[in-house]
Amino acid sequence: MFKRIVALCIVAVAAHGLAAAAPLNVAATTATFADLVKTIGGDYVEVSYIAPPKFNVHFIEPRPSDVMKVKKADAFAHAGLDLELWSAPLRDAAGNRRVMKGGAGDLDLSRGVALLEVPDRAVSRAEGDIHLFGNPHYWQNPANARIMAATIAQKLSELDAAHAADFAKKFATFQAKLDAKIAEWQAKLAPYKGQEVIGYHNEWPYLMQFLGLTMGQFLEPKPGIPPGPKQLGALTDYAKSDKVRGIVTSVYYSDKATKTLSKNTGLGFVTLSQNVGDVPAATDYFAMFDYNTEQLAGLFAGGK
Ligand SMILES: [Zn+2]
Prior knowledge:
single chain; alpha/beta; Rossmann fold; 2 domains; four-stranded parallel beta sheet; 10 helices; binds zinc ion
Protein backbone atom coordinates (compact mmCIF):
# COMPACT_ATOMS: atom_id res chain seq x y z
CA MET A 1 0.00 0.00 0.00
CA PHE A 2 2.73 2.41 1.04
CA LYS A 3 4.68 1.64 -2.14
CA ARG A 4 1.58 2.30 -4.18
CA ILE A 5 1.09 5.72 -2.55
CA VAL A 6 4.74 6.61 -3.18
CA ALA A 7 4.37 5.53 -6.78
CA LEU A 8 1.24 7.64 -7.20
CA CYS A 9 3.05 10.62 -5.72
CA ILE A 10 5.90 10.24 -8.16
CA VAL A 11 3.44 10.09 -11.06
CA ALA A 12 1.68 13.19 -9.72
CA VAL A 13 4.94 15.12 -9.37
CA ALA A 14 6.06 14.06 -12.85
CA ALA A 15 2.71 15.12 -14.34
CA HIS A 16 2.96 18.47 -12.65
CA GLY A 17 6.51 18.89 -13.92
CA LEU A 18 5.32 18.33 -17.47
CA ALA A 19 2.66 21.01 -17.13
CA ALA A 20 3.45 24.65 -17.76
CA ALA A 21 5.17 26.79 -15.17
CA ALA A 22 3.38 27.38 -11.88
CA PRO A 23 0.41 29.75 -12.04
CA LEU A 24 1.02 33.42 -11.33
CA ASN A 25 0.39 34.28 -7.73
CA VAL A 26 -1.79 37.38 -7.44
CA ALA A 27 -2.72 39.09 -4.17
CA ALA A 28 -5.72 41.38 -4.52
CA THR A 29 -6.91 43.88 -1.95
CA THR A 30 -10.61 43.00 -2.36
CA ALA A 31 -12.78 40.02 -3.27
CA THR A 32 -14.09 42.06 -6.22
CA PHE A 33 -10.62 42.55 -7.71
CA ALA A 34 -9.75 38.90 -6.97
CA ASP A 35 -12.86 37.82 -8.89
CA LEU A 36 -11.91 39.95 -11.93
CA VAL A 37 -8.31 38.68 -11.90
CA LYS A 38 -9.53 35.06 -11.70
CA THR A 39 -11.99 35.67 -14.54
CA ILE A 40 -9.19 36.87 -16.84
CA GLY A 41 -6.40 34.63 -15.52
CA GLY A 42 -8.34 31.36 -15.22
CA ASP A 43 -6.15 28.37 -14.36
CA TYR A 44 -2.99 30.37 -14.98
CA VAL A 45 -3.42 32.44 -11.81
CA GLU A 46 -3.78 31.70 -8.14
CA VAL A 47 -5.57 34.57 -6.46
CA SER A 48 -5.98 35.56 -2.84
CA TYR A 49 -7.47 38.70 -1.34
CA ILE A 50 -6.89 40.69 1.81
CA ALA A 51 -10.07 42.60 2.78
CA PRO A 52 -12.69 40.07 3.90
CA PRO A 53 -16.15 40.68 2.42
CA LYS A 54 -18.61 42.46 4.74
CA PHE A 55 -15.83 44.73 6.05
CA ASN A 56 -15.16 48.35 5.15
CA VAL A 57 -12.16 48.19 2.81
CA HIS A 58 -10.99 51.66 3.87
CA PHE A 59 -10.29 50.47 7.40
CA ILE A 60 -8.90 46.94 7.12
CA GLU A 61 -6.02 46.03 9.43
CA PRO A 62 -3.87 43.51 7.56
CA ARG A 63 -2.75 40.44 9.52
CA PRO A 64 0.63 38.67 9.39
CA SER A 65 -0.91 36.13 6.98
CA ASP A 66 -1.71 39.03 4.62
CA VAL A 67 1.92 40.13 4.71
CA MET A 68 2.83 36.59 3.64
CA LYS A 69 0.34 36.74 0.74
CA VAL A 70 1.97 39.91 -0.57
CA LYS A 71 5.50 38.64 0.08
CA LYS A 72 5.07 35.71 -2.32
CA ALA A 73 2.89 37.54 -4.87
CA ASP A 74 3.91 38.01 -8.51
CA ALA A 75 1.33 40.80 -8.74
CA PHE A 76 -0.64 42.98 -6.34
CA ALA A 77 -4.07 44.12 -7.58
CA HIS A 78 -5.40 47.22 -5.86
CA ALA A 79 -7.63 50.27 -6.36
CA GLY A 80 -4.85 52.83 -6.08
CA LEU A 81 -5.98 56.25 -4.77
CA ASP A 82 -6.78 55.95 -1.07
CA LEU A 83 -9.31 53.15 -1.00
CA GLU A 84 -6.79 50.94 0.81
CA LEU A 85 -5.19 53.31 3.29
CA TRP A 86 -3.25 50.27 4.51
CA SER A 87 -1.75 49.09 1.20
CA ALA A 88 1.53 51.07 1.31
CA PRO A 89 2.47 49.90 4.85
CA LEU A 90 1.41 46.36 3.89
CA ARG A 91 3.66 46.35 0.83
CA ASP A 92 6.51 47.82 2.89
CA ALA A 93 6.08 45.09 5.50
CA ALA A 94 6.10 42.40 2.80
CA GLY A 95 9.31 43.84 1.31
CA ASN A 96 8.51 42.35 -2.11
CA ARG A 97 10.09 44.64 -4.71
CA ARG A 98 8.05 43.16 -7.58
CA VAL A 99 4.79 44.55 -6.21
CA MET A 100 6.01 47.91 -4.91
CA LYS A 101 4.62 51.03 -6.58
CA GLY A 102 6.04 51.06 -10.11
CA GLY A 103 7.27 47.45 -9.85
CA ALA A 104 6.57 44.88 -12.60
CA GLY A 105 3.79 43.30 -10.53
CA ASP A 106 2.11 46.51 -9.39
CA LEU A 107 -1.42 46.08 -10.77
CA ASP A 108 -3.07 49.47 -10.20
CA LEU A 109 -6.66 49.06 -11.42
CA SER A 110 -7.37 52.79 -11.53
CA ARG A 111 -5.24 53.08 -14.69
CA GLY A 112 -7.28 54.56 -17.50
CA VAL A 113 -10.44 54.94 -15.42
CA ALA A 114 -12.18 58.34 -15.62
CA LEU A 115 -12.36 59.23 -11.94
CA LEU A 116 -15.17 61.21 -10.37
CA GLU A 117 -14.86 63.91 -7.71
CA VAL A 118 -11.16 64.58 -8.21
CA PRO A 119 -10.49 67.64 -5.99
CA ASP A 120 -9.31 70.74 -7.84
CA ARG A 121 -7.14 71.67 -4.87
CA ALA A 122 -5.07 69.75 -2.34
CA VAL A 123 -7.34 68.33 0.40
CA SER A 124 -6.06 67.49 3.84
CA ARG A 125 -6.75 64.26 5.65
CA ALA A 126 -6.85 66.38 8.83
CA GLU A 127 -10.44 67.23 7.89
CA GLY A 128 -11.17 63.52 8.18
CA ASP A 129 -11.76 63.09 4.47
CA ILE A 130 -10.65 59.75 3.03
CA HIS A 131 -11.23 60.45 -0.67
CA LEU A 132 -8.29 62.76 -1.28
CA PHE A 133 -7.51 61.81 -4.88
CA GLY A 134 -11.01 61.47 -6.27
CA ASN A 135 -13.68 58.92 -5.46
CA PRO A 136 -11.98 55.49 -5.31
CA HIS A 137 -15.12 53.27 -5.56
CA TYR A 138 -14.96 53.13 -9.38
CA TRP A 139 -15.60 49.36 -9.86
CA GLN A 140 -19.26 50.16 -9.12
CA ASN A 141 -19.68 51.33 -12.73
CA PRO A 142 -19.55 48.17 -14.87
CA ALA A 143 -18.28 50.24 -17.81
CA ASN A 144 -15.10 50.71 -15.75
CA ALA A 145 -14.79 46.92 -15.37
CA ARG A 146 -13.99 46.78 -19.07
CA ILE A 147 -10.98 49.06 -18.47
CA MET A 148 -9.98 47.19 -15.33
CA ALA A 149 -10.21 43.81 -17.04
CA ALA A 150 -8.07 45.13 -19.93
CA THR A 151 -5.46 46.35 -17.43
CA ILE A 152 -5.50 42.91 -15.78
CA ALA A 153 -5.15 41.10 -19.13
CA GLN A 154 -2.23 43.31 -20.09
CA LYS A 155 -0.42 42.85 -16.78
CA LEU A 156 -0.91 39.07 -16.75
CA SER A 157 0.37 38.92 -20.34
CA GLU A 158 3.49 40.89 -19.36
CA LEU A 159 4.15 38.51 -16.46
CA ASP A 160 3.25 35.30 -18.34
CA ALA A 161 3.72 36.00 -22.05
CA ALA A 162 3.27 32.29 -22.92
CA HIS A 163 -0.44 32.58 -22.03
CA ALA A 164 -1.16 36.01 -23.49
CA ALA A 165 -3.56 34.52 -26.04
CA ASP A 166 -5.51 32.78 -23.26
CA PHE A 167 -5.84 36.03 -21.33
CA ALA A 168 -6.98 37.88 -24.46
CA LYS A 169 -9.62 35.19 -25.09
CA LYS A 170 -10.91 35.35 -21.51
CA PHE A 171 -11.03 39.14 -21.76
CA ALA A 172 -13.10 38.96 -24.97
CA THR A 173 -15.55 36.53 -23.31
CA PHE A 174 -15.82 38.78 -20.26
CA GLN A 175 -16.40 41.84 -22.43
CA ALA A 176 -19.19 40.16 -24.42
CA LYS A 177 -21.00 39.08 -21.24
CA LEU A 178 -20.48 42.53 -19.72
CA ASP A 179 -22.02 44.27 -22.76
CA ALA A 180 -25.13 42.08 -22.50
CA LYS A 181 -25.46 42.55 -18.75
CA ILE A 182 -24.91 46.33 -18.94
CA ALA A 183 -27.91 46.63 -21.25
CA GLU A 184 -29.98 44.44 -18.92
CA TRP A 185 -29.04 46.37 -15.75
CA GLN A 186 -29.64 49.77 -17.32
CA ALA A 187 -33.01 48.64 -18.71
CA LYS A 188 -34.07 47.51 -15.23
CA LEU A 189 -33.55 51.01 -13.79
CA ALA A 190 -34.54 52.98 -16.89
CA PRO A 191 -38.05 53.77 -15.54
CA TYR A 192 -36.44 55.54 -12.56
CA LYS A 193 -33.90 57.70 -14.36
CA GLY A 194 -33.13 60.94 -12.53
CA GLN A 195 -34.46 59.73 -9.16
CA GLU A 196 -32.51 60.71 -6.06
CA VAL A 197 -31.39 58.63 -3.08
CA ILE A 198 -29.43 59.46 0.08
CA GLY A 199 -26.26 57.41 0.73
CA TYR A 200 -24.52 56.43 3.94
CA HIS A 201 -20.91 56.69 2.69
CA ASN A 202 -20.08 58.36 -0.62
CA GLU A 203 -19.27 55.05 -2.30
CA TRP A 204 -21.93 54.88 -5.03
CA PRO A 205 -21.30 57.79 -7.45
CA TYR A 206 -20.14 55.38 -10.17
CA LEU A 207 -23.22 53.19 -9.77
CA MET A 208 -25.41 56.32 -9.87
CA GLN A 209 -23.56 57.50 -13.00
CA PHE A 210 -24.13 54.12 -14.63
CA LEU A 211 -27.85 53.97 -13.80
CA GLY A 212 -28.67 57.65 -14.34
CA LEU A 213 -29.58 58.17 -10.68
CA THR A 214 -28.59 60.95 -8.27
CA MET A 215 -26.98 60.83 -4.83
CA GLY A 216 -25.69 64.09 -3.37
CA GLN A 217 -26.47 63.78 0.35
CA PHE A 218 -24.89 61.37 2.80
CA LEU A 219 -25.36 60.20 6.37
CA GLU A 220 -21.62 60.68 6.81
CA PRO A 221 -21.06 64.47 6.87
CA LYS A 222 -17.64 63.77 5.25
CA PRO A 223 -16.38 60.43 3.90
CA GLY A 224 -15.13 58.54 6.97
CA ILE A 225 -16.90 60.71 9.57
CA PRO A 226 -19.87 58.95 11.24
CA PRO A 227 -23.29 60.65 11.22
CA GLY A 228 -24.39 62.71 14.21
CA PRO A 229 -27.67 64.38 15.24
CA LYS A 230 -26.86 67.53 13.25
CA GLN A 231 -26.46 65.60 10.00
CA LEU A 232 -29.59 63.54 10.67
CA GLY A 233 -31.56 66.74 11.23
CA ALA A 234 -30.26 68.31 8.03
CA LEU A 235 -31.08 65.17 6.01
CA THR A 236 -34.57 64.95 7.49
CA ASP A 237 -35.21 68.53 6.36
CA TYR A 238 -33.72 67.78 2.95
CA ALA A 239 -35.89 64.69 2.49
CA LYS A 240 -38.98 66.81 3.16
CA SER A 241 -38.27 68.63 -0.07
CA ASP A 242 -39.77 65.47 -1.61
CA LYS A 243 -37.02 64.90 -4.15
CA VAL A 244 -35.59 61.87 -2.40
CA ARG A 245 -36.93 58.36 -2.96
CA GLY A 246 -34.86 56.22 -0.57
CA ILE A 247 -31.65 55.54 1.36
CA VAL A 248 -28.71 53.35 0.32
CA THR A 249 -26.29 51.79 2.79
CA SER A 250 -23.77 48.90 3.01
CA VAL A 251 -23.47 45.84 5.26
CA TYR A 252 -20.57 47.24 7.30
CA TYR A 253 -22.33 50.40 8.49
CA SER A 254 -24.48 50.34 11.60
CA ASP A 255 -28.19 50.45 10.75
CA LYS A 256 -28.92 52.84 13.61
CA ALA A 257 -28.66 56.21 11.83
CA THR A 258 -30.16 54.76 8.63
CA LYS A 259 -33.19 53.43 10.50
CA THR A 260 -33.63 56.73 12.37
CA LEU A 261 -33.60 58.67 9.11
CA SER A 262 -35.95 56.15 7.53
CA LYS A 263 -38.34 56.48 10.48
CA ASN A 264 -38.17 60.29 10.49
CA THR A 265 -38.77 60.61 6.76
CA GLY A 266 -40.79 57.54 5.78
CA LEU A 267 -38.13 56.68 3.18
CA GLY A 268 -37.31 53.04 2.57
CA PHE A 269 -33.68 51.85 2.56
CA VAL A 270 -31.65 49.13 0.82
CA THR A 271 -28.34 47.55 1.76
CA LEU A 272 -26.29 47.13 -1.41
CA SER A 273 -23.23 44.99 -2.04
CA GLN A 274 -20.20 47.27 -2.35
CA ASN A 275 -17.94 44.28 -2.98
CA VAL A 276 -18.28 40.67 -4.09
CA GLY A 277 -19.38 38.62 -1.08
CA ASP A 278 -20.82 41.47 1.00
CA VAL A 279 -24.22 39.79 0.65
CA PRO A 280 -24.66 36.05 -0.05
CA ALA A 281 -26.22 36.68 -3.48
CA ALA A 282 -23.16 38.64 -4.70
CA THR A 283 -21.14 35.55 -5.57
CA ASP A 284 -19.18 37.27 -8.35
CA TYR A 285 -18.92 40.62 -10.17
CA PHE A 286 -22.00 40.00 -12.34
CA ALA A 287 -24.11 38.63 -9.49
CA MET A 288 -23.24 41.73 -7.44
CA PHE A 289 -24.85 44.01 -10.07
CA ASP A 290 -27.79 41.63 -10.51
CA TYR A 291 -28.39 42.07 -6.79
CA ASN A 292 -27.75 45.82 -6.54
CA THR A 293 -29.96 46.72 -9.51
CA GLU A 294 -32.73 44.41 -8.23
CA GLN A 295 -32.60 46.09 -4.81
CA LEU A 296 -32.70 49.60 -6.27
CA ALA A 297 -35.54 48.77 -8.66
CA GLY A 298 -37.45 47.33 -5.69
CA LEU A 299 -36.83 50.48 -3.66
CA PHE A 300 -38.21 52.73 -6.38
CA ALA A 301 -41.09 50.41 -7.25
CA GLY A 302 -42.07 50.33 -3.57
CA GLY A 303 -42.45 54.10 -3.66
CA LYS A 304 -42.22 56.44 -0.73
ZN1 LIG B 1 -14.88 55.63 0.38
